[in-house]
Design goal:
The chain is mostly helical. It holds the Pfam family PPR.
């Protein structure tokens, strides 16, 4: 039974369309060209509707209710007379509550906007709504108009609103509507202009609106403007309240300026405004995020001393801190303390604990917490099950994950949409992306809006699978349905682009998302910085780091660790150690990954003394070296010729609770081969590996094949290759390139036999293959042919790396010399043959592009009008 079928049976409310009145149902076919809402407009327009299917369904249902009640006056007037007054009549009918926002009325305005796009008309509609007791709706309409027409015409709209204001409309009312509309549209410069006009008129802006503005400015790194607005509030009013201070404290803490954030908390009482539970929660959370768990608990104690009672959010925040540090036993005790103090845990509390145990690899304990949760009367939600199912899938325990999922649907009362989220997430973890998209399209077709969580699951699934363009398509659909992307949406898209080395597109996308006011956090910058390091672009990574700091975004432990790791990998050890010192001076505690990155870098450059100092520092800070640390040191000691010390490290592993893994044995086998060739030492470690029930992987076999190639034992290579193929181990590009290298160095007759085997295996050449062949051309005294092939390769979609450039430099030098090494005719023809095969493949190869029929159908229905734009434009402008 497919996931779609299971979900359809589990979630009947989602998959069944809401019944519509007969006269509307006749026209509601998805595949009919008839525009249901279009019948209410006197003229028919061919332009695409800005209203998605969910909004359209909601409007149709509300209109059918109005018609059933016989309240047809406003509709009849609108259909016969297209005017601002008649449109306002319909909008008021659709807006049921004067004091609440009405998304249905706004959706109808979006639809009608095609006929009312003249700014003068829009201005009239806004004034009529505002003076007619629909102030919130007026602001929403105005916000939509300025977001569609953009800043320049938005300025014209504000002038029209000002000049055409009715006599009974106050100056403050007009300016406040404009101010809030520009804020909702994310047009900060226009909002600041209106704020300046309000101040020049001697008016006091709304405190809540100013808090929204300061929040937006903080998110965009405009800290100097934020402080100016805050100082104006102190001098000119309105007096900052707790919400204003909380906005400032939150902005400072997100930036990483904990000292100033905490200082603001201390001075709040001077302005007759005491810190509330929200203020303390913000500061406690910030200290936890930046690894200062001790300070977070000290603030918790201070909070109580000041008479501010913690709430469930406070306890959940501190629980998250403990789980993040892996202190699960203390987390369970803290949960008991929470209950004793009369603070009732909620589903989110239990999800934090369950997530902590899953990340610690203790799924049994996670299930025990799930049982406790149920026993205390809390229903697990989709997040609970998603944490557990994802944990099972990550540990290759798919059957247990599916069993848990089936049990959840059979025994729990999950709401239909939560069950849908869970199924979509599970399908993505299982890499069943067609089923996930099918579920998504199924509910969209029926006018039910899926959650951001559901879209994020599918976007992340496509990005993990390397299908970046498909991930973009899902993102476009998400925007089309009016959902705001979260930080996870942005991060998934950036990871997908970085994995495909499309870094310029990734940076452009992130910039546009920031401009649009979408949620972009420090993780996005970290992903991009790591992406630049992975392609060897150290300058690009450092430029982005400086850009991040200029924007006032304070790096966290993960960002610092990514920078240190990248610099260490590229052998910039002085710079990496300098960043490590800066990180420590900021009060951020390096984690194991940070230490391991530095230790690896120092070992690679042979500075074992500095590496050992870092290991000692790591222990002093309460971090025990792990399997990664040990493997790094084993490799480092072997590399420097300290075989006994490396072996001693290996023998000590079990005494400190570590079990050698495949990487450990591969490190020892590789080091033995490099030091002594493929001999007794390498065989000893391979036998030890098998005795310890540690299965060799493709890396093990590649090391062995490389050793045999160095000894020109190509017949043995074939035997090893056949052996691991029979075990189901799949060769990779390293296998092929190692064999190519060995083949080129072998006798011609054996080389031809091996080439035939490689061709049967359908190997995929890459830059290493090209470099191997060009090197052998040079070794055979064919420098001129090397340069000829280099020119041909420049015509193919092929990018030279540093190794290629070094080979070509050598070829230029040799080609300019008088003498050449002797050439073997047969061998030279053989190299030409291999190079022709590689060249033809590089010219013709296009990665297979599978496109889900369901996804294609969804995109065609939802966002076909966006095609033709650039990727970043499509992502930010649906």
């Amino acid at each position: 039974m497919s996931a779609i079928s299971r979900c359809a049976s589990a979630c009947p409310k989602v998959c069944a369309a809401s019944p519509l009145p007969l006269f509307l149902r006749l026209y509601s076919s998805r595949y009919s060209s008839f525009d249901v809402l279009g019948q209410f407009l006197p003229s028919q327009t061919a332009s695409a509707s800005p209203v998605n299917s969910v909004e359209s369904s909601a409007v149709i249902v509300r209109l059918s209710g109005i018609i059933k009640k016989g309240s047809l006056d406003s509709l009849l007037r609108f259909t016969s007379e297209l005017s601002p007054d008649s449109l306002v009549g319909v909008l008021k009918s659709l807006s049921l509550n004067e004091r609440r926002r009405s998304p249905v009325a706004l959706a109808f305005f979006k639809f009608a906007f095609r006929e009312f796009s003249d700014l003068q008309t829009c201005s009239r509609v806004v004034h009529l709504l505002s003076s007619g007791g629909r102030r919130f709706l007026a602001q929403d309409v105005l916000s939509y108009v300025v977001s569609v027409v953009g800043p320049q015409r938005g300025h014209q709209m504000s002038e029209l609103m000002w000049n055409s204001r009715p006599a009974n409309c106050s100056i403050f009312s007009v300016l406040d509507d404009l101010f809030r509309a520009f804020l909702d549209a994310g047009l900060i410069s226009s909002a600041l202009e209106i704020l300046g006009r309000m101040r020049s008129e001697g008016l006091k802006p709304s405190g809540s609106a100013l808090s929204i503005l300061m929040k937006l400015l903080h998110e965009r790194g405009e800290f100097s403007i934020t402080w100016k607005i805050f100082r104006d509030m102190l001098g000119k009013g309105p007096r900052p309240n707790a919400r204003t201070f909380n906005t400032m404290v939150l902005g400072l803490c997100k930036r990483g300026d904990l000292r100033r954030g905490e200082s603001l908390l201390q001075i709040m009482s001077r302005f007759r405004c005491n810190p509330d539970v929200f203020t303390y929660n913000i500061v406690i959370n910030a200290h936890g995020v930046y690894g200062l768990s001790g300070d977070a608990f000290e603030l918790f104690d201070l909070m109580r001393e000041m008479g501010c009672e913690p709430n469930s959010v406070t306890f959940n925040t501190l629980l998250k801190v403990l789980c993040k540090e892996g202190k699960m036993e203390r987390a369970r005790m803290f949960l008991d303390d929470m209950c004793r103090e009369g603070i009732a845990p909620n589903a989110f509390t239990y999800n934090i604990i369950i997530d902590g145990f899953v990340k610690a690899g203790d799924l049994d304990e996670a299930n025990s917490v799930l049982a406790d949760m149920r026993g205390k009367g809390f229903n697990p939600d989709c997040f609970t099950y998603n944490i557990l199912v994802a944990g099972y899938y990550k540990r290759n325990q798919e059957m247990e994950g599916d069993r848990l999922l089936e049990n959840a649907l059979a025994t729990s009362n999950l709401p239909a949409l939560e069950a849908l989220d869970l199924f979509i997430s599970r399908s993505c973890w299982a890499n069943e992306l067609d089923e996930a998209v099918g579920l998504l399209w199924n509910v969209l077709e029926n006018g039910v809006p899926p959650s951001v969580f559901a879209f994020n699951s599918v976007i992340a699934g496509y990005s993990r699978a390397g299908l970046v363009d498909d991930a973009y398509d899902i993102y476009r659909v998400m925007l089309k349905f009016g959902l705001s992307p979260s930080a996870s949406t942005c991060n998934s898209l950036l990871m997908g682009l970085c994995s495909k080395r499309r870094l310029n597109e990734a940076e452009d996308l992130m910039g546009k998302m920031v401009e649009k006011g979408f949620c972009v956090n420090i993780s996005a910058f970290t992903i991009l910085i790591d992406g630049y390091f992975r392609v060897g672009d150290v300058m690009g990574a450092c430029r982005l780091w400086d850009c991040m700091k200029r924007k006032g975004i304070s790096p966290d432990v993960v960002a610092f660790s990514a920078l240190i790791n990248g610099l260490s990998r590229e052998s910039y050890m002085d710079e990496a150690h300098g960043v490590f010192v800066e990180m420590s001076n900021r009060g951020l505690l390096p984690n194991k990954f940070t230490y391991n990155s530095l230790i690896c870098g120092f070992c690679k450059e042979g500075n074992l003394g500095e590496a050992l100092k870092l290991e000692k520092m790591m222990k002093n800070n309460g971090l025990l070296p792990d399997i990664f640390t040990t493997n790094i040191f084993i490799h480092g000691f072997w590399q420097q010729g300290f075989k006994k010390i490396a072996t001693g490290r290996f023998e000590d592993m079990k005494s400190i609770g570590l079990t050698p893994d495949t990487v450990t044995y591969n490190t020892l086998i590789s080091a033995s081969c490099k030091a002594y060739g493929l001999g007794e030492d390498a065989n000893f470690w391979l036998k030890r590996m098998k005795d310890d029930d540690c299965e060799p992987d493709i890396t093990t076999y590649n090391i062995w094949i490389n050793g045999l190639c160095d000894r020109h034992e190509m017949r043995e290579v074939v035997k090893v290759l056949d052996a691991f193929l029979s075990l189901g181990v799949v060769p990779n590009t390293v296998t092929y390139n190692t064999m190519i290298h060995g083949t080129c160095a072998d006798e011609l007759d054996r080389a031809l036999i091996m080439t035939g085997k490689l061709l049967k295996m359908a190997f995929i050449p890459n830059v290493v293959t090209v470099n191997t062949l060009l090197t052998h051309f040079c070794r055979q005294g064919m420098a001129e042919r090397t340069l000829v092939w280099a020119e041909k390769l420049r015509q193919a979609p092929f990018v030279f790396d540093d190794v290629t450039r070094k080979i070509l430099k050598r070829a230029y030098q040799e080609a300019g010399g008088a003498a050449f090494a002797s050439q073997q005719l047969g061998k030279s023809q053989f190299f030409e043959f291999l190079m022709h095969i590689t060249f033809d493949f590089l010219c013709d190869y296009k990665p297979p592009r599978y496109r889900s029929p369901v996804l294609a159908k969804m995109v065609e229905h939802c966002v076909h009008e966006t095609f033709g734009k650039s990727t970043a434009e499509c992502c930010c402008n649906p």
